[in-house]
Amino acid sequence: MPKHQRPVIAALLALIVLQLIMLSALYAGVPPHPPVATPLFGIAPFIGMSVAVALAALVMGPADTSTGRILSGLAVLCALVSFGPQKYLDPQFALIWPAVLTGQVAALVVLASVFGVIRADQTDEVARHAAQRAG
């Protein structure tokens, strides 16, 4: 595993573990656990999809390919449903803050890695075009 990928891979794995623990707590009925359903969808299928997207990002190269970057961004968006800033207003925040803060830090690491690679790719492309024009 290349060194530049370690932070984003570790962050995606952290999001996966956090979501699997949430899903386990839901199935076991151990508080605090997420609600069974929201007005828009059932939580278990959503968490399953979120974990699947994060795993797919890992397989595709989370910050090395366009597909990997898109999947990584989608994994962050899905994870922020569970760990986003709206959770500061959750009545159970005193019980869930470790997971919320860890999820937010992991999301920031993934986004920083994804956008850092995008900027590097764009810089390389601009340099290539400039070299072609000069040569």
Task: Report on this structure.
There is one protein chain. The protein has 135 residues and is mainly α. The chain has one domain. 75% of the residues lie in helices and 0% in strands. The protein has 4 helices and no strands. Helix 1 packs antiparallel against helix 4 and helix 2 packs antiparallel against helix 3. It is elongated. The mean pLDDT is 89.
Largest sheet: none
Task: Count up the domains.
Answer: 1
Dominant shape: elongated
SS field, number of helical segments: 4
SSE string = HHHH
The count of strands amounts to 0
Distance between the termini: 36 Å
Strand content: under 5%
Q: Which stretches of 5+ consecutive residues score pLDDT under 50? A: none
Classification by helices and strands: mainly alpha
Helix content: over 70%
Q: How much is the average pLDDT?
A: 89
Radius of gyration: 18 Å
Keywords: Membrane, Transmembrane, Transmembrane helix
Organism: Sulfitobacter sediminis
Protein name: SPW repeat-containing protein
Transmembrane segments: 38-58, 70-89, 95-118
